[in-house]
Amino acid sequence: MSVNDYGLSKVDPLSDIIALLRPSTAVSKPITGRGRWGVRYAAHHAPGFTLILQGDCWVAFEGKEPVKIQKGDFLLVPSTPAFSMYSHPGVECEPREPVSSAVRHGDQEGAPDFVSLGGTFRIEQVNAPLMLALLPDIIHIRASEGRTGKLGRVIQLIADECACEDPGKEIVLQRLLEVLLVEALRWRSIDPNAIPSGLLNGMRDPALARVLRAVHADIRAGWTVLELAKMAGMSRSAVASRFGDTLGCGPIEYVARWRMALAKDALTRGAKTLDRIADEIGYESASAFSTAFRKRLGCPPGRFARLSDSDRSQ
User: Which keywords annotate this record (predicted)?
Assistant: First the structure.
């Protein structure tokens, strides 16, 4: 698979999105319980995951119906809202604060009757909305649906890496987290009605997938609706309508949004001039790029880069 200067693939839009998110700094820990117990956590707006290794429990996310999760089940939430976790319905839930070490709920003595592996990780915040646009609020993959075995192995590798201090730990964790995200994103049994408009829906439509691959392969091209419609085998009005229904925006708007995502990533890294960024994402000049960036983001590229650098240093 070839890559461009951004480290992105030239054939796989989903891989491009994951590359820009740069997941890192994983926390993975065992969570066990015995008897009757219940805990409540405030929202922390970071991606989180859980794999149930033994027993079962209930999870109730804010604004959602409680879900029973059992041995072999996998949960992924792209932005963790307030939630409660409990052994039995009706149990009083005690407020808790997230910790990075092992957690024991309920009776502290004796072998646990509930065991899970839970974790969270960071993503590049400048493009975090891309992830939220890809996923439903919650992905629940049941053990009976056959995908958690592979996910479980990936999560165990993450847990093993978190527990060691071997050289190269951070890059290994980043790659494992990328695999975790891709596995969850391409899980075919997600209810299509639960997926928000976005790239994931678009990639499941063969006609739109051809267009998306072409756009991601050459973002510098001066794409027109007519060219993209021909590629999809549709009329201009039909491709515009399909894009709107499936991705939440028209085809040219999608091109513009992806260009801005690449621009924001380049600006936060700080290694490229405005002229180079403009050329790489399809603008005729740094001035044209700056005008488009200011119109969409509300500030010029230079100020955006300074603010991003300030946020990182805090």
Answer: DNA-binding, Transcription, Transcription regulation
- Say which residue the tokens 């590629």 belong to: 231
pTM of the predicted protein model:
0.74
- At residue 240, the pLDDT reads 95
Q: Residue 310: is it exposed, middle or buried by C-beta count within 10 angstroms (0-12/13-18/19+)?
A: exposed
CB proximity list for 90: less than 8 A, separation 6 or greater: none
- Tens digits of per-residue pLDDT, 275-291? 999 999 999 999 999 99
Say yes or no to pLDDT of 300 above 70. yes
Tokens standing for 171? 């890059």
Which domains, from first to last, does the chain contain? 20-194 (2.60.120.280), 197-314 (1.10.10.60)
Q: State the helix-helix crossing angle for 251-269 and 274-281, rounded to 10 degrees.
A: 150
| Phi-psi region at 115: left, alpha or beta (left = phi > 0; alpha = psi -120 to 50) | beta
Q: What is the pLDDT of residues 134-178, one digit of tens each?
A: 677 788 888 877 666 787 888 888 888 887 888 988 888 888 888
β-strand 38-41 against 94-96: which pairing, if any?
A: parallel
Q: Whole-angstrom Cα distance, residue 195 to residue 133?
A: 9
Across 46-66, average pLDDT: 91
Sign of CA dihedral 119, 122, 125, 130: negative
